[in-house]
Write a structure and sequence with these properties.
single chain; about 475 residues; alpha/beta; six-stranded mixed sheet; six-stranded parallel sheet; 18 helices; 12 strands; about 50% helix; globular
C-alpha cells in the first residue's frame, strides 16, 4: 500500500487563513459579536458564518472563488425562500414533532433544487439557513432577524474571500501539480483513441491512470471519458467503430449490457456475464473482463497468495462475482460468500463451475464462525465507502480471524476504511482497492495495445494517483 504524501502549507491554505482572520477582525472591531441584548439584526451578528464562507470560497484562482461565491449566494436565496415558506407554520414550529420533519423537508428540497440547477456547491448553504432558523428556537420577528444576520455574515465572508484572493494571487511553484499528476498527452494524426464509458462517468480515475501508463510507455494513444446513458450501449458501440476507437472500458451500469453485444467474449467475461474492456479490431468487438485477473495481480504484488486457502468474501454484487469466480478458478480451497440476502449469495455460487463457492449469511455469529476458518478476508461490499451510506455494525468477526490472515477491502476511497483500520490495529496485513483499480486497468491497456505494462508504467500510475 502506498504511503500518503505529507501535505505542505501552500498558498491556498495561507489565503484561507488570512481571509478568516480578516473576517473575524472586522466583526471584532465593529463590536458585532452576538450581543443578543441589542435590538434587531445587530444583536445577532457575529463572525461565524463569515469565517465559514471564507473557508469554503477561498480557492486557488479568482475564477474559482467567484464561482463558489455565486453558488453560496444562490444557496442563501434558496434556503431563505424555503425558510419563509416554513415559517408559515407559525407557532406549530415550537413543537419538535413539527420542527423535525419540517427541517428534513426543507433540507431535502434545498438539496434537490440546487442539484437541479447544477449548483452542487450551493447545496450545503441551501440547507444551512433553514436549519439554523428552525433549530434556533426563537419566535416571531427574531426568526427573521436571525436569518438576516446569517445572510449578512455570509455575504461579507464571500467578499473578504474574493478581495484576499485578488490581493494574494497564487504564484508559488510548489502549488503547481507535479508532472506525474497530469501526464503529458500528445495527439497526432496517427493517435489511436481509447475511453471509458459509464453513467455517471465524470468521477472516473481511468483517464488519469491510463494516460499516465500511456505516457510512461511512449505509446501513440489517448484515453478519454465518455458518458453513455443506460440502455444505449448498442448505439455507442456502432459510434465507436465508426469513429475509429481502438477500444474502451466500461463501468456501471454498462458491464452486463455489453456482454451480449460482443462478437467474441473471453472466458472470464463469459463466466462473469459482464464486460469491462472492449477491443475493436477490424470492425469486430472483442469483450474481456479484467476485474478478476486484476485482483489476483494486485494480491500477488502485495505477497498474498490465495491458492489452496479458504477465503471469506463479503458481498454478492458484480465485483464480488468477478473476485469469487476468479479465486475459485485459480485454485482457492474454498470461497465462503457472505451476503445479507442469502438468495443472492446462492445465485452467485450457482454460477461457479468448480464447486468451490459456498453461500452463507451476514449475521454476527455466522461471520465469526466462518472467520475462524479463513486464511484471507475480502470485502466486496460498499460498507465504509466515501459518499455511500452504511458501515459494518460490528467488527468482532475480525477477532476470530487467524493472526496471519490478510484483510483486503476493494474500496479505495477512503484509502483506509474502518474495516482496514481495525484489522491493522490487530496486527494484520491489509490492502485497499487501489491495487485492483490499477492492475485491472493495466491488463486492459495490454489488451488494447499488445504492449506489456512494466513496473515503470505502474509506478507512474501510482504517482499520478497519489498527486491527484
Amino acid at each position: 500500500m502506498k504511503k500518503p504524501a505529507v501535505p505542505h502549507i501552500g498558498m491556498r491554505m495561507v489565503k484561507t487563513a488570512v481571509a478568516v482572520m480578516v473576517s473575524y477582525s472586522i466583526f471584532q472591531l465593529l463590536g458585532l459579536v452576538y450581543h443578543e441584548e441589542l435590538p434587531g439584526v445587530w444583536g445577532m451578528l457575529g463572525p461565524s458564518y463569515a469565517c465559514i464562507a471564507c473557508i469554503v470560497c477561498t480557492q486557488s484562482s479568482l475564477g474559482q472563488t467567484v464561482r463558489q461565491g455565486v453558488s453560496r449566494f444562490i444557496g442563501v436565496a434558496v434556503g431563505g425562500t424555503l425558510s419563509v415558506i416554513t415559517l408559515l407554520l407559525g407557532d406549530a414550529l415550537e413543537s419538535p414533532w413539527v420542527t423535525a420533519p419540517a427541517l428534513g423537508a426543507v433540507c431535502l428540497a434545498g438539496l434537490w433544487f440546487c442539484l437541479f440547477i447544477r449548483r452542487p456547491a450551493a447545496c450545503g448553504m441551501a440547507c444551512i439557513v433553514p436549519c439554523v432558523i428552525l433549530i434556533r428556537g426563537v419566535a416571531g420577528a427574531d426568526r427573521y432577524y436571525y436569518a438576516a444576520a446569517r445572510i449578512i455574515e455570509t455575504v461579507l465572508g464571500v467578499g473578504v474571500a474574493f478581495l484576499v484572493n485578488a490581493a494574494l494571487p497564487d504564484r508559488r511553484p510548489e502549488e503547481e501539480p507535479p508532472p506525474s499528476a497530469a501526464p503529458a498527452v500528445r495527439v497526432g494524426n496517427s493517435t489511436k483513441k481509447l475511453c471509458v464509458i459509464g453513467d455517471p462517468v465524470e468521477h472516473s480515475k481511468s483517464p488519469l491512470i491510463q494516460n499516465a501508463m500511456i505516457d510512461a510507455l511512449g505509446l501513440d494513444y489517448i484515453y478519454l471519458c465518455q458518458r453513455v446513458p443506460r440502455g444505449q450501449c448498442a448505439q455507442w458501440l456502432e459510434c465507436a467503430k465508426f469513429a475509429g476507437y481502438a477500444g474502451f472500458n466500461a463501468t456501471m451500469p454498462h458491464k452486463e449490457e455489453l456482454a451480449p453485444l460482443m462478437d467474441h467474449l473471453d472466458e472470464d467475461a463469459a463466466l462473469f456475464g459482464a464486460v469491462n474492456t472492449v477491443c475493436i479490431r477490424d470492425g469486430t468487438a472483442w469483450g474481456y473482463n479484467t476485474d478478476g485477473a486484476g485482483f489476483l495481480r494486485a494480491l500477488a504484488a502485495e505477497g498474498i497468495h490465495p491458492e489452496g486457502k479458504t477465503v471469506l468474501l463479503l458481498g454478492a454484487g458484480g465485483a464480488a462475482k468477478a473476485v469469487a469466480l476468479k479465486l475459485a478458478r485459480q485454485g482457492a480451497g474454498r470461497v465462503l460468500v457472505c451476503n445479507r440476502t442469502l438468495e443472492r449469495a446462492r445465485a452467485l455460487c450457482a454460477a461457479d463451475p468448480t464447486g468451490r463457492l459456498r453461500p452463507a449469511g451476514f449475521d454476527r455469529e455466522t461471520l465469526r464462525s466462518l472467520a475462524e476458518q479463513a486464511a484471507l478476508l475480502v470485502n466486496c461490499t460498499s460498507l465504509g465507502m466515501e459518499g455511500t451510506a452504511g458501515q459494518f455494525e460490528d467488527f468482532s468477526f475480525l477477532d476470530a480471524l487467524p493472526a496471519d490472515a490478510p484483510v483486503v477491502d476493494l474500496i479505495y476511497a477512503p484509502a483506509e476504511t474502518q474495516l482496514l483500520a481495525r484489522a491493522r490495529a490487530g496486527g494484520r496485513k491489509t490492502m485497499n482497492g487501489l491495487g485492483l483499480l490499477v492492475h485491472q486497468a493495466a491488463l486492459s491497456l495490454e489488451l488494447f495495445t499488445g504492449k506489456a505494462v512494466d513496473k515503470t508504467a505502474l509506478d507512474a500510475c501510482f504517482a499520478a494517483l497519489e498527486n491527484r
